[in-house]
Batch of 4 targets.
Target 1
Amino acid sequence: MKAIIIDDESKARNLLGILIQENCPKITQIFEAKDLLSGVEIIKKETPNIVFLDIEMPEHSGLEILNFIEKDVLNFEIIFTTAYSEYAIQAFQLSAIDYLLKPIRPSQVKEAVDKAIQLIGKSQINSRLEELKNSLTSSNFNKIGLPVSDGIKFVCFEDIIMMEADGMYTKISTKTENEILISKPLKHFVGLLKNIPAFYKPHRSFLINLKYITQYVKSDGGYIVMENGKGVSISKEKKEEFLTIVQNIA
């Protein structure tokens, strides 16, 4: 398996190269480039499986890679390297694009490469890059990328009815699909959507979209009925808070 590191800092390239060699035995060849355009030439010639791509480089940002490579030949997975803020990291996560946050740790590299290997060939990388660029240039995130069996599925926030914990998985109900099982725990989505006002966590096992509540039932300790007909528990410590929220949006 081949990889290329595109970064304008030679020390950063060397360090990442060492971390890849020490932690990712499936990668047997590593190429390097000091800017995007020379990196694109190597990509076209060597057809690497994984591209480690710095975002902030002179002349051309790593985000511009789609401007120089035809979308129909994007047959590799991208792992961005970045020192971006928490706001930007949210954009990466919502777009289902992996990243290594500088300073890079060995465990990060191994985890990112393992994910990339699973997605190669079915990742719709061009769609994900477009979503990432849109998110980074707008303060209004409106979609989330969900890793499914055959790639990445983008869903608008407003179409999500609820999320339910299922061990280390999450069951997501939307307006168009009854249920999507995602191989990430509920706490992952709670963290991602914490700044989206429509989402509320009434119980440790549920994250709901408040706009899809149809009823609050007082019996049996109190529970919520969602638009898809599912009942959602409310923890005792959240009941008063929830009733206040519902009164304010009613």
Target 2
Amino acid sequence: MSGRLIREGHSGTGPGSITPDGCAVELYARLSAGNEPDVIEAAVPAGASILELGCGAGRVTHPLVERGFAVTAVDESARMLDHIEGARTVRSPIESLDLGDERFDVVLLASFLVHTSDHRVREGLLRTCRRYVKDGGVVLLQREGADYHTDLPREREDRAAGCTIRIVSAEPLGDGVSEVRAEYVFEDARWTQTFRSRALSVEQFEACLEAAGLAVDRYLTDDGVWVLARPK
């Protein structure tokens, strides 16, 4: 593939630059990493080489670097990558990433990217995961919780960032896809993001991985959000 497949239904509002898929650069530079680095660190060997796909502004990248991991951070947005410090950066769509014969101990696909509404995009994402993981390595994925498209609106506080995050709505569009609208409210700024997401049951999720040459080894968190897979 020569570039990213078109993703419709993504938009964002708020101060600063907005990437084509609706992500606000300044927003992602402000949000905290939460417990995600802890989950990752507990699942992989110390000092492992990590290929982080869709790194954004380094919300997870920076804590991983601080913990001694060798991170290659990939994102399509040059403005996002401008915020990355201490890691090697590569500007590229995930689906068409070309790192030659390089392989990594860990490939990381977080931010619910596996739930893209376009089957072709998902296949491309997972194909990249399989291509760049070492034979004895692991792929860590973040998937949506069981109630992600229901019981709305709901909100949570990112206290470290001083932000209220609201999932306002998830409007069904058919074929298992919803248009999700999120709000991020700080004392001095507000952003919105709208994107399309495809709900995947455990069986559907695992079948997608199997088709890409990956197999689920175990679920890392009780809510099933973080998953460790291995190459088949």
Target 3
Amino acid sequence: MSNEGRKKNRYGEGTIFWDTRRSKFVGRLSFGFRPDGRRDVRVAEGASRAEVRREFRKIKDEYNAAIEPGKQYSIRQATLDWLRYGLKRQGKTTRDKYESLAKANIIPLLGAAKVKELRAEQVDEWLEVLAQDHATSTLRLLLSMLRRILRFAEARGKASRNVAMLVDSPDGKAGRPSKSMTREEAKKCLEASRGSWIHAYIALSVFTGVRTEEARPLQWKHVHLNPVAEQECSCGTAHRETSAPHVEVWRSVRNKAETKTPKSRRTIALPQQVVVILTAHKVRAELERESSGVVLSGDDYVFSTRVGSIRDAANVRRDLRKVIKEAGIRGHWTPREFRHTFVSLLSDEGAREELIADLVGHKRTSTTRTIYRHQIRPVITSGAEVLDKVIDQDF
């Protein structure tokens, strides 16, 4: 066996020899020196010299493509590296979310697979397993994460291709559709929350349509309940003329306090009822501060915790559940559905889609129409009323 193919290799083709201990042919291919001064030698094995030469060709292709040698780099290690180094521009909330999803769904089911050996059918099988318990939106997010993980590995020479780009996510488990409250339900919710901090939060959300991520970090300097008496706006512009009470939705809990989209940065006039509720809420906040020997400032959060920090989303959901139960409203509700309620109430009163889209910060009216607007009237009568007028005139 050791006499097979005695033809001498030319310079740069590597060295192939029979390894008695391993009982196979072993090849060594040199690529010069590494940055640390050591020789860069790649090793290949095979049952014959021809098989080793084929491995040499693969190694050369990987070297020319700047791909690291070996097949030991796993999906688990790639995921951990991506979580550590690939999310530098993301906020803490987003990083925590990705880490939780990866450690629950990617590492346990795909972690043992090698990045270079991962196949598209394996990704398909992984998604089919997840589809039994996850919503379609979650499946799309997980596939997007895997694509980003493999792209991260590609950029660092750990993989030669991104097989996740060849796969589409399937439909998942049907999730609970969003809904909106009726006028009566919103009124019950406000009545049940009187005396609590969340009363003002619900009023602002229902009657202005702000996102929960925009309401939670809202500061008093961005809320103008009596603009006539104020000397200067938070933006630095002096108020010389009478203006309506308004709230400046300029920041959120996202990374660097940016709003979801540039159009989401907006200034919204406040209905009189909301002004009354927020004024009472501010008076209570001032009294609480005075009892602690502190003066309420513009930098204080409107819906702060007892220690003055931003309320956590889970904290808001917990207090909302208590209000929903107290109000006797059926079903499961989340803070984001107050935004749906705002859109639906305005639409029910005949407001134009363009106006509603501007108020909630939507770039397209189609988003307002297809996702946020819900029918809250038992019967839509406007069409019949118009037709009655046409019939009376022409028939």
Target 4
Amino acid sequence: MYNFDSITNRCKTNSLKWDGLKEKYGREDLIPLWIADMDFEVSPSIVKSLQERIKHPIYGYMYCSDDYYKSIIRWMKRRHSWEVEKEWIVFTPGVVSALSYAIRAFTKPEDNIIVQSPVYHPFYSTIENNKRNVITNPLIYKNGAYYMDYKDLERKIDSKTKLLLLCSPHNPIGRVWTKEELSKLGEVCLRNNIIIISDEVHFDLVYREHTHTVMANVSPEIRDNCIICTSPSKTFNIAGLQISNIIIPNNKLRKKYDEELKKDHIVRPNIFGQGALIAAYDESEEWLDSLMRYLEENKDFFIDFIETRISKLKVVRPQSTYLLWVDCSGLNMNSEELKEFFLNKSGLALNHGEIFGEEGKLFQRFNIACPRTVLEEVLLRIEKAVKDEVL
């Protein structure tokens, strides 16, 4: 029913991913596998919702309707076994801005905030731009997989440590944390009065044999000590509509967070985002299930090609997201040489691993949410570039 093999030309649409290549990479003739949006057409239900709204020729202010809240509540219960109450839901335009509001609401300048590196790079800039200190709790990379380092975490905590930014599922490594891992992390934070801000924007994009646990579902105590950041943007490829749902069960924390939002008059969604969310959550589940089957096939295709034909690279097998974290240390290049290799010898626009933290400097992040013929061309380019390098 849904043709994810179809190639849709996104050039000259002001697409950051495509039209922004020249400014970011200095070249326009690259295949872009960098920023996390998909080269797939959205669900027909979302398109229909937007078309219907466009027919009304007045585009004034909106408020969050009952249908908006009901759609979120139903989705969380159906897909994540999470019972959410309407009062817990707070609108923001995006998850990154939501992180910034949380930082300002619950910390003061020069406080310490923990991140588990390598991690989604706006975590660092959002902390630093708010004049707080980044404290890294590096993940353990062992036998091609990543694990939390609780001993290091305990060592890093002091009286100035107020928040931990959790990425769950984790970007860029694609890890789905188990309930046991999250419980252990949550207990450390409870003992030390550290609030958890959990970015769960990829939580719908989980592969078979893995199950995402919402941090607030771990225990009642942890639920009251965390803020859950969600959005349909990654799941349904509607990041440009700027709508996210921040869910805060604790009344005291929610009130403090609301106060911070009101300082910037963040109170209502744009006129198209709300309808798209409702169409996504209420009418697009079949599209999502088809998408996940296609992404799983893309993931397997990519990994099989690397393992059989480009053995110098090692893919960290993802449990979630359409982002692949690739260990390039086998190429025996430093970080700058890797940039040059993938950009100018392979003709690819990627996210270079060092932006996710020092631990990622010999890695590259690939966005595989594209038609398979494009992914095949990407891999053939890399294969040729590696062979030319050897020669």
